[in-house]
């Protein structure tokens, strides 16, 4: 007992620099328990210095899946071990959508998940949630006013601005009447407020030229696919630099510019580069092409033969090599999820049935943010 008391005394009186170095390697669950050791540790774990040090030692080693319910406004959060595909955690999201609406995820970063309404006409309320510490923040309403006789379409992105150590939500509002106009605002988690941005997206004003609602953020830049509903205008990528607060338009690989495939290209990050995934059929086979953006030029990384005979409704490239597939059997409403490792040609069923409304998937690393 005396040895245990001495050890406790040594750790409690250990210099903060050493304590931070030791404790920052521990998982969030352990740190939440250690807050009860003493008042000093409780304060230390919540300091920005410790939260930042802990975050710097986290690596994405889990598979995050969020699935909506078809019967109510609830959604389910599931965390899987990326190696064993065993479910490590399941939670119900602490917020609900308004009646008649569904919840949607517009992005995840550093253990935080940005959640809003899936209805493009009204994304409020917007939440930022940390499932590891069970804390969330409801964002204030945006500054962009509604306009009479216009349909406002909302597009969101959630990312991290490293230079100012701040998580941000980018909101693009598209007002439709005879033609389209855009307004933009940014929410700062650090200051907990919205700010208008004068930049205008370089998108054609045609009514049938729209952003796809799914966005990604990588290296302080948010990206959306821009697609023309009736063809005629090439598919492209819209980017927004969070540091410079500027929009740019990026063309897709030539073979995808006017693609007539039933599924649109999707965006991701592979080998620390912006990437595009495109599923297509060829001679009875289902293929998935992966393109990387290198020095401003698109390079095809590989083409993978998908090992399934059901209809592939969506793909996600996760943890740099594995592919999560949503597949649907003819006659069934819901999809099922499969994790495919193309290098080992190994297929693993993810034991979760996805609702017909939406599924969000990403690699995940826990954090203490919002504690």
From TrEMBL:
<dbReference type="InterPro" id="IPR036047">
    <property type="entry name" value="F-box-like_dom_sf"/>
</dbReference>
<dbReference type="InterPro" id="IPR013187">
    <property type="entry name" value="F-box-assoc_dom_typ3"/>
</dbReference>
<feature type="domain" description="F-box">
    <location>
        <begin position="8"/>
        <end position="59"/>
    </location>
</feature>
<protein>
    <submittedName>
        <fullName>F-box protein CPR30-like</fullName>
    </submittedName>
</protein>
<dbReference type="InterPro" id="IPR050796">
    <property type="entry name" value="SCF_F-box_component"/>
</dbReference>
<dbReference type="InterPro" id="IPR017451">
    <property type="entry name" value="F-box-assoc_interact_dom"/>
</dbReference>
<dbReference type="Pfam" id="PF08268">
    <property type="entry name" value="FBA_3"/>
</dbReference>
<dbReference type="InterPro" id="IPR001810">
    <property type="entry name" value="F-box_dom"/>
</dbReference>
<dbReference type="Pfam" id="PF00646">
    <property type="entry name" value="F-box"/>
</dbReference>
<dbReference type="InterPro" id="IPR011043">
    <property type="entry name" value="Gal_Oxase/kelch_b-propeller"/>
</dbReference>
């Amino acid at each position: 007992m005396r040895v245990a008391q001495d050890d406790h005394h040594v750790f409690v009186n250990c210099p903060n620099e050493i304590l931070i170095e030791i404790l920052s390697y521990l998982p969030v669950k352990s740190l939440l328990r250690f807050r009860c050791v003493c008042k000093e540790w409780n304060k230390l774990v919540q300091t920005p210095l410790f939260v930042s040090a802990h975050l710097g030692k986290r690596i994405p080693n889990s598979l995050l899946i969020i699935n909506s319910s078809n019967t109510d406004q609830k959604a389910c959060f599931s965390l899987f071990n990326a190696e064993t595909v065993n479910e490590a955690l399941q939670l119900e999201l602490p917020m609900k959508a308004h009646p008649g609406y569904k919840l949607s995820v517009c992005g995840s970063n550093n253990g935080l998940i940005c959640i809003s309404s899936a209805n493009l006409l009204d994304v409020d309320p917007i939440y930022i949630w940390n499932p590891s510490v069970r804390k969330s923040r409801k964002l204030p309403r945006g500054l962009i006013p509604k306009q009479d006789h216009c349909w406002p379409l909302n597009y969101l992105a959630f990312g991290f601005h490293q230079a100012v150590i701040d998580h941000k939500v980018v909101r693009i509002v598209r007002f439709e009447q005879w033609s389209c106009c855009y307004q933009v605002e940014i929410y700062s988690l650090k200051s907990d407020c919205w700010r208008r941005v004068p930049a205008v997206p370089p998108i054609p004003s045609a009514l049938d030229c729209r952003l796809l609602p799914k966005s990604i953020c990588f290296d302080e830049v948010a990206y959306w696919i821009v697609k023309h509903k009736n063809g005629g205008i090439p598919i492209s990528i819209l980017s927004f630099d969070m540091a410079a607060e500027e929009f740019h338009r990026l063309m897709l690989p030539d073979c995808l510019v006017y693609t007539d495939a039933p599924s649109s290209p999707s965006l991701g990050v592979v080998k620390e580069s912006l990437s595009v995934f495109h599923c297509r059929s060829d001679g009875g086979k289902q293929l998935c092409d992966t393109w990387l953006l290198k020095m401003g030029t698109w390079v095809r990384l590989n083409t993978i033969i998908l090992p399934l005979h059901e209809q592939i409704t969506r793909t996600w490239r996760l943890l740099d090599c594995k592919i999560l597939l949503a597949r649907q059997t003819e006659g069934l409403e819901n999809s099922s999820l499969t994790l495919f490792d193309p290098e080992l040609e190994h297929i693993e069923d993810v034991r979760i049935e996805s609702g017909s409304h939406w599924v969000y998937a990403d690699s995940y690393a826990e954090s203490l943010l919002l504690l």
